[in-house]
Amino acid sequence: MERNGNEATVGIECGILGVRTAGKFYPAMGMATHTKPDIDALGPKIISDFLNIETGKLLFKTAANGLIEGKTAQEWMKDGVILVDMGNGQLDHHPAKDFPNECATSLFYKLVPAEKRSEKLDKFVEFVIDRDTRATAQPFDLSQMCKILTANNDSVAVYSYMQAAFSAFMSSSGKPSVALFLEIFEEFSKGKTNISPVLEKYVKNIREGKYSNIPDLLMATCEETRDLVRLIMEEVYQNQLDFEQARKLFANSPKIFWGNNDRALTYIWTDNKQALRAGLNEGFSVIIIQNSSGNTGIYTQINHRINTDDIYHALVEAEGSVRDNRETAQKVWYNHAGAKQILNGSFTAPNPISTALTLEEIADIIVTICKINNGYLPYCKGGSLQCSEKCNFHWMGVSMCVKIRNQQKKTNGETIIRNDDYTQISSLKRKPEIKRKKLNNK
Fold first, then answer.
1. Tally of helices (H runs) and strands (E runs) in the chain
2. 63 and 163 assigned to the same domain
3. What range does the domain containing 119 cover?
4. How far is CA 93 from the centre of its chain?
5. Residues with Cβ < 8 Å from 322, sequence gap 6 or more?
């Protein structure tokens, strides 16, 4: 479990989670993970409590600029707190390329003594790995339940709910409580209309005996979790109402097309937490959402292959131009490469520095990049003319432009710019139409 060459290692000894360093073992005072947790963030604590492994209190922390509330993972560890699923700590599987087929829960489970493991626990850990690393999902499995609860409940409550669901799953005989589940559903649905189609289909399959034994809402149903099962249904019902409201927002939102008009971008201002799902459902390639706190998210359809790396670097350049401070600009935006998203703060990591760019400016940058990567190169005529800094798009460093620049430099025997080397772009001409603004940076 050593990471980055650190001498201190995390382990479990005598049923206690702790840190071994310089030949001595120090029990952990607690575990910390991010707010708005997913199932992987909660997995280590859920398993340790189930197995009566002492891990201390579960804390929820926010991350900013690579630090967890201003401290590194090693600093937290010295204070007796072990980071989970964040901060490059001993129980963090990021960056994913360094931990193939691993997640925070699986890293913790490797520390659990063999005699405490079981086939059912093995199955749960494999389930978490699959949901966390492969982006798979099945309606109302424990991972989806966690996401549903996270939207409108505080992190401590979400942990309590998921702990109860997990315990019910682990203690079940493998035969689901179908009658009890349907009873709860009938109580919930009485007098309601516009019930989520996903929930209705899930219930229909259960009535017809079509269900599996994966960790899900049905397998977690028992008398002790009756209120939890009802809460999940109520949350899904409210989400459906919010989803329908969000669809109405997109009906009147701006629509900017490119390519053969088969790709489109839109942007909206809303606090509706179902806005992203609604936008993706409407088929937009890129969706920009800004909430009342000033946090802005840029989301893309995964299968539309939008180059978010290009967008991220161009946004940092544009932000730096407005602020006259590129270092601050890099703190404004986070490139979530795996999810093909670019975030200026989020529900899990609110960013105190809102973007200085308007949504219209952001949209213009993104559409221009998408057009260029789709063959729109009016100034160099697709590379037939020499690339020049006088080009209005030169400052962006778009992949297609860099490719042409590399080809031309190779022909002229000059040094080739690597596709991932954007350090040279900062000195290039900035976009002239971005207006400078007076900012009160926090």
1. 14, 14
2. no
3. 9-135
4. 14
5. 356, 357, 434, 435, 436, 437, 439
